[in-house]
Task: structure prediction
Amino acid sequence: MAIIAPVDSNGVISNTTNTKNSISSTKSSTANSLDKDAFLQLLVAEMQYQDPLEPSSNTDYIAQLATFSQVEEMQNMGDTLQQNHATELVGKQVIMKTQTADGETGYIAGKVDYVVSEEGITYLGINGKEYDVKDLDTVIDSDYWDKIKDKF
Result:
């Protein structure tokens, strides 16, 4: 499929930066993840600027939509699995990686009191603070924790 630039009534190619900027703003506003609205905007732009002598078939669009739906469902399943994993940690002792202001890696340890999800990110509540579940380093057995807790 060929993509062509819009032409005004005088036969002059229009400035295409508006289309590029609108796609860029769509990308940045969704925090580097495409949702169904962004997909539909891209699909409409693709249809609008397709070469009339070589139009795309409907099956191409349906295949694109099916692929996009599969990717979206896999992302949703990954988020659900992450939330389930975090929920299973409630009441357990864990060690979390942290970053100091100098950029050095540190560690904190404690019991997971609660789990919170905000804007697609899952946080573990430990000692009154929230830590990203991606920073989980170790889940500790309670007997072992009793032996090493003084080190933290």
